[in-house]
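Two proteins follow. First one:
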Amino acid sequence: MPNQDTILNTLPDSIETIVKVDTIIVKDTIVHTINDTISKTITTIDTVKQTIIQPAEESIQFVAHNTEQTIPFLLILGLMVLGAIIWVTFKLLSDYITPYLKAKYKIKRANLFVYRLKTITWSVYVLFCFYQLITSHLIIGVALTVFVALVGFNFWKDFFTGIYLKFSGNLNTNDKITINQLNGKVIKFNTRNIQIETVNDEILFIPYRQFLDNAVSKKISKGEMRSKKIILNLPQNYADNTVKHIEKLVFLCPWVYSHKPIKVYQIDDYSFEIVIYASDDFTFNKIREYLRNRVATTSSDEK
């Protein structure tokens, strides 16, 4: 059995050996970890260069190459000729072909169709011109676009508002309107304004942008059919209190427009709401009087 002195002499050497081995292992682990981190960082940097720096360099080269050139004269001339062809085509459609079609074939919405086609065509033409200018000379193309947009701000405001009014169909020629205490009949839609004629035979040109901030009233033309409601109350002893029977009574009325939809809603057992179309108050009163008399007569006959 080893004595105490032998154990005490060998113990420091053993401890030192263990510490040295562990230290070497820890040092190696730290070095490997640092090396892995550095290699991953280098790989990430290379990836960033490929995804960001290279496209940026290509964009810079494109801009430099693009700005060194000038807009070809033939390109400008070609765009102007194309615009002139489009203008002449729609001028012929609006002034000659459309009136002929309306007179010959009774086409009611020919003008609206031509206007929509013209709007779409000019929009495509403007986008095409913008693309050609940008690809030919970036700086001049952008500067020209910004200049046109700022200088013609009111023009574009009127132009796009006019497009909305015409496409919506809320206003048509011969409509009588009131805006900003100005009364008149719509006679023409121009590019930037609407043209109305007053009762004093004056011609007024109202910019489209005024329709954005002001209320517009439109007078219903005489003879135009409008929907109205009639509340029909049946007597308590009325036998046939069904929607089908009330619809039959309405269709028998000679004052009702048969080509317009008629709706009957039952409020309770002996009350009905009837939606009809009438051109004026006189016709409406005649329909209401007819229905009430028929209900009263039928009730008396049943007694």
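Second one, unrelated to the first:
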Amino acid sequence: MEETDPPGHTSTTPNTVVLFLSAGANLEINFGDHGTPTPAPTPTPSTGAVGGLVWNDLNGNIEYDPGEPVLNGVLVTIKTLDNQTVGSATTGLDGRYRVADLAPGNYRAEETDPPGYASPLGSPNQVLFQIVAGQETTVNFADILVATPTPTPNPAAGRVYGRVWNDLNRNAVPDPGEPGIEDVTITLLRDTLETRVRGPESVIVATTRSDANGEFNFYDVVPGPYFVEETDRPQHQSVTEHRLRAGRGRPAVSGLLWRLHRRSHGAAANRQWVAAVQPLEPRR
């Protein structure tokens, strides 16, 4: 006699029994079976992941070497080839990042260099890679420190200042009691080619107007040759001489040229420019 095990069961007794049945006799034959659980099918993964290391590549060999410091807080963005962002992560204290749940396909990993670092040749900021379901792809990024350039100090600046006044006695000297003229336009120009001739190549540096006392100022002027020009107000004309080199207390006029120079301690000298004007006499 033979037993055929039912699905999901195995025999605990022999499946085949040999017997001899006598006339008029009754025989009882039993078979022991044990139910076997059906194993659950292992699900097939449908996504993959990408991860890697970001470090300071001290020797520039694009290989992580023991002792090279890892970089924390570096942003890595994952994009499709049509530039759609599908994930991002920042590196942890171990310098590693990981982006999971990526559908199989082709992607681009983009690293944002941390401040003070740049990607060397051989380790670009953008890397193409492929995701395979159930697998993790490794994309590493090497960075190097960027030397901070020493800023070039600006030349010590100086001040150009002066006064426009009503030269009542026409002596081209500011005398006590002669009033200043307000709201006169004063223009500072750089003699770019150092020709000492006011020309179209002269560059306007700044423009200002005289105050209620006739005074004006140009601050933070770097050393070099300049022109100062005055625009006469209506009903006024200039009476000071032309083309005088400026100096403290010396009269000067529209179109004056001088060089703003350095003092021995490095600061640019302040130069004073004074223009005298007088009302026009009425026509007879």
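SUMMARY FIELD: The chain has no helices and 19 strands. Confidence is low (pLDDT under 50) at residues 241-284.
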